[in-house]
Design goal:
The structure holds two protein chains of two kinds. Chain A is α/β, with parallel strands linked by helices. Chain A is built from nine helices and ten strands. Chain A has a domain of 68 residues. Chain A has a six-stranded mixed sheet with strand order 6-7-8-3-9-10, with helices on both faces. Chain A is globular and about 55 Å long. Chain B is mainly alpha-helical. The chains are: A alpha/beta, B mainly alpha. At the A-B interface, strand 6 and helix 3 of A face helix 4 and helix 5 of B.
Chain lengths: 254, 263
């Protein structure tokens, strides 16, 4: 099992409950290295919970998560922290530290995780990252001065600041207008193609997602109801997935 | 009906025990991180300024007024016995042993304890705490430990200031308003008040600093929901920390009186 080099992340029989509410009830999923995998599913079904379990800020009740063949759930805390350096996370509302400037936000993981202390080196890296997300020169702004789309792009710059192998995106396009959403989707592709990072994306933006993603996972009733490429998803007989997809593509009727 | 009552009671007890367990684990974690370098001096200085320097005016105003009130009351009562020259000793006793640490703590709960809960609570509900963790930064170490170090420094320092200002307030009220003889007033104060009185108050302030910070940060980190959750957590933190310092004050007073303080 552990020798599968194609899959950078493997989740086996993952269970997570909150009190009496069983959210994940045996999730199995394999994430291919260097690809974009998109998780779709109804709101509140546990997609974010799955991502938070993968990055290790939530502990599963049962099941295993492997990162490059290493069982993350069995690692001591020190090793888990080390392993977390290989993952970046873009939160739904970007989760920028609101008491820090954009520059301080992006330099935070550079200082904390890469232990870089040189001010000029940090400034250089921050400027490069802001260029990458097409927001040059906003270093001194506070998060409260940014629009929703800008916050997400700064959040993305922070998530990729330590050059992780995997970036997890929690609904990166939710709440954005179609043009901004497209822009964020293009940035995800840039992260994947240009920076060669594996991307795991939660999205409700089915139409746009299906054009770009390599794999689609459909989370339903606490398990992965479907896993395959977008064409297979469209052809799937899974009743709920079928409804999910057809509603996303259906034109408006008179 | 009876079954429903016991079911509800049982659930309530379990939930309280769960919170207590969580709080105990939180305390153990905090104590552990207190001694693990590197210490975040930048954050410690920041909070020392925020809790300490920025509170000098409000603590001074509160304790000066308190000192004046105690001065007025004591002179008024002691004059009936012809013993108003002892008012200075009374003001100094009450300020150093009780009022300076307690008033300072209550002012700091209102001004900074509530702020700690609200800040950490809003970070919690906007996933900023989760973001810290994804960047391998322990939230307790980053958010709680520097605040605790700052409080340990600031609470006793502001209490020392409160002693001076409060006693001055008492002096102003007794000597300039109630016309007590200032020589006898000061003489009796020097005679009766010992360094132990001051120390006991400063030890209390040190303990209050720990209690307030730990309770307010714990409530912030356990905030649930949105803006309402932050509001509820802040109210809870202010109420619990105020009651806790008063209870702790009683036990410490009892202990100090049994060990080294005169009646």
């Amino acid at each position: 099992m552990n020798g599968d080099s194609k899959h950078i992340i493997r989740v086996e029989n993952l269970h997570k409950a909150f009190g009496t509410n069983n959210v994940l009830e045996g999730v199995d999923i394999q994430i291919e290295e260097g690809k974009v995998t998109t998780i779709i599913g109804k709101s509140g079904i546990g997609k974010s919970v799955l991502l938070k379990n993968i990055i290790g800020i939530m502990k599963p009740d049962k099941g295993k998560i492997f990162f490059k063949g290493e069982d993350v759930t069995a690692l001591p805390k020190s090793k888990l922290l080390e392993l977390r350096k290989n993952m970046g996370y873009l939160f739904q509302d970007a989760a920028l530290f609101d008491f820090m400037t954009v520059e301080e936000n992006i330099s935070f993981p550079i200082i904390e995780q890469l232990k870089i202390k040189s001010r000029s080196e940090i400034k250089k890296r921050v400027a490069k990252l802001l260029d990458l997300v097409e927001l040059p020169g906003i270093e001194k702004r506070m998060p409260s001065e940014l629009s929703g789309g800008m916050r997400k792009r700064v959040g993305l710059a922070r998530a990729i600041a330590v050059e992780p192998q995997v970036v997890l995106f929690d609904e990166p396009t939710t709440g954005l207008d179609p043009i901004l959403a497209e822009n964020i989707n293009e940035l995800i592709m840039m992260v994947n193609k240009k920076l060669s990072m594996t991307c795991l994306v939660i999205s409700h933006d089915i139409a746009s997602t299906f054009r770009r993603t390599d794999k689609v996972a459909f989370l339903h009733d606490g398990t992965i109801g479907f896993f395959g490429n977008p064409d297979e998803a469209v052809a799937s007989k899974h009743p709920v997935l079928k409804k999910f997809i057809s509603n996303s593509f259906r034109p408006l009727e008179d | 009906m009876v079954m429903i009552f016991f079911d509800k009671l049982g659930r309530k007890i379990v939930s309280k025990l769960e919170s207590l367990g969580k709080f105990s684990l939180f305390l153990v974690e905090i104590v552990r991180w207190l001694f693990v370098p590197p210490f975040r001096f930048k954050e410690i200085f920041y909070y020392t300024e925020k809790i300490g320097v920025d509170s000098i005016a409000i603590v001074s105003l509160s304790t000066f007024t308190t000192g004046m009130i105690i001065g007025l009351q004591l002179v008024n009562i002691l004059r009936l016995l012809g013993a108003e020259i002892y008012a200075g000793a009374g003001v100094a006793f009450s300020m150093s042993r009780e009022l300076a640490p307690v008033i300072t703590a209550i002012v700091l709960i209102a001004k900074n304890g509530s702020g700690m809960t609200a800040e950490i609570g809003s970070m919690k509900v906007t996933e900023q705490i989760d973001a810290l963790e994804t960047m391998t930064v322990n939230p307790l170490r980053y958010l709680v430990v520097p605040r605790l170090f700052a409080s340990i420094l600031v609470f006793p320092a502001l209490t020392a200031l409160a002693n001076v200002v409060g006693i001055l307030g008492g002096y102003v009220a007794s000597v300039y308003i109630m016309q007590v003889n200032k020589v006898y007033y000061l003489k009796e104060m020097y005679f009766w008040v010992d360094p132990e009185d001051i120390w006991s108050g400063l030890i209390k302030a040190f303990v209050f600093g720990i209690i307030v910070t730990v309770i307010c940060c714990f409530n912030g980190l356990n905030t649930k929901g949105g803006a309402k959750g932050v509001g509820d957590a802040t109210t809870k933190a202010v109420v619990i920390s105020t009651i806790s310092i008063l209870i702790a004050d009683y036990f410490m007073t009892y202990l100090f009186i049994s060990i080294f303080l005169r009646v």
